[in-house]
């Protein structure tokens, strides 16, 4: 069985053993879900516990494959008076090796034009350099994102106002790496109608609110926040927002594992093969 990236708070009953979901975006023979059990020199007990936990995981396998909304559906799910709401685009998470310049969620937010919204961040050094040349207070025509490949969406043609420029440096406040220095290269905050869009020169996933604060944006005063990440952002953002909506679209870190053309993975394997049966490789 292969499982998309999952947080431990989604599977509290499994915390007593070390449960490795594996990295499902790796096309190797041995990729898959694993359970590691340690005992005090009792091999038979370790094997039995591993079998029991593995069976529990298999019995709950459907819970690891949620049906995620599209970016458009995620925005439509906003409730009146519920803010701030955060939408994370799991399919273009640079922490998983994606290009970080995907445009599916950003395009949906531009078209929805919900008031008082922001997005951080999209990787596009060309647009950043263009904004730094004209300076704060200028209007520019840009083709934003979608430059690495066509899998993650096409470039967005936007007429934008250059609100602020920074060097992309700040100190991380997230529990993950708190106090460490971050350098995202030159950045720009663009305003497109009701939407503030932060563009950076270095690929990275958003871990905390510091990239917003660097550009003068207080996310707790926003109605809707969009960002590129799968799970690591939650430690910092959960206390700051009312709701998190994870959306999926085509991309290298999508939950839709059947979108990939695996060549080397051991078959049959769930969910690529829905009729695959439970098997225990160990002991």
TrEMBL record:
The record's InterPro entries line, in alphabetical order, gives:
MlrC_C, MlrC_N
Give every Microcystin LR degradation protein MlrC C-terminal domain span.
Answer: 87-264
Enumerate the spans annotated as Microcystin LR degradation protein MlrC N-terminal domain: 13-75
The molecule here is called Metallopeptidase family M81
